[in-house]
Design a protein that fits this description.
With 259 residues, the chain is mostly helical. The protein has 2 domains: 32 residues; 220 residues, MetI-like (MetI-like fold, Orthogonal Bundle). It is 84% helix and 0% strand.
């Protein structure tokens, strides 16, 4: 198990380090202008120089992302439970869920700004829209994967619908719920950045837009790395939460590598 953990933590770091070294070599060897493609060394240096500004913008993005993420997860969870418990509702609402994901965010966002102004509400609505779908779909699929033998047994012994749901169906769907949660977590950060592009006074999306218009490509990459770091931290927190709440599933996933 220790070898498994060390390999799965060391291999990605080694890959990232190799990419950064290759990137720096290419930029130096071919003398690529900094405004076109800065090297990792310049990006890191610029990151330290503008560290206070990046923290302020990152904080704004994180708050918006977490707010939309929480609402999106709650809405997706309630919707999935409703569609599972009321099959007739699933037949009519599920296609609308799919259609909602085919609406381009870039086209919808200006309308939300027009309807609700330039405050936090339209940004949270955009993040909610991109976050609820993975949660709802994953949970619905998870409910369908409930062991039919256990379901029949609980029905035979006279278990109520409430008992079947909370003691069998919900625990069976938890791994699927966390799969959707991890997808939504990464979507929430990107949704926040896209929302900030369309109208905001602070945030990584605003910082990236200003830096791009000024041809400060190094600052654009600093904001990109900040977005990636936020997404990874949120993703890692959900992984830890998953291991804590459903240890039986995470142990089962790793059982093939423990030998």
């Amino acid at each position: 198990m220790k070898r498994f953990i060390s390999w799965h933590t060391g291999a990605p770091l080694l890959t990232i380090f190799t990419i950064l070294v290759f990137w720096q070599i290419v930029v130096t060897l071919f003398e690529i202008p900094a405004w076109m493609l800065p090297g990792p060394a310049q990006i890191i240096q610029e990151g330290f120089e503008i560290y206070p500004r990046i923290i302020d913008h990152s904080t704004s993005t994180i708050l918006i992302a977490l707010g939309g993420f929480a609402i999106g997860v709650s809405f997706g969870l309630l919707l999935a439970v409703l569609l599972h418990l009321v099959p007739k509702a699933r037949e009519s609402i599920y296609p609308l869920m799919v259609l909602s994901q085919n609406v381009p965010i870039i086209a919808l966002a200006p309308l939300l700004v027009l309807w609700f102004g330039f405050g936090a509400l339209p940004k949270i609505l955009i993040i909610t829209l991109v976050c609820f779908f993975p949660i709802a779909v994953s949970l619905i699929d998870g409910f369908r994967q409930t062991n039919p033998a256990l379901l029949n047994y609980m029905q035979m012994i006279g278990a109520s619908r409430r008992q079947i749901f909370f003691k069998l169906e919900w625990p069976s769907a938890l791994p699927y719920f966390f799969s959707g949660l991890k997808i939504s977590a990464t979507y929430s950060v990107m949704g926040a950045v896209i929302a900030e592009w369309l109208g905001a006074q602070q945030g990584l999306g605003v910082f990236m837009t200003v830096a791009s218009s000024a041809f400060r490509t190094d600052q654009v990459f600093v904001s990109i790395f900040a977005i990636m770091l936020i997404s990874l931290v949120l993703f890692g927190f959900i992984l830890l939460l998953e291991k804590w709440l459903i240890p039986w599933d995470t142990d089962k996933k790793g059982s093939g590598t423990d030998e």
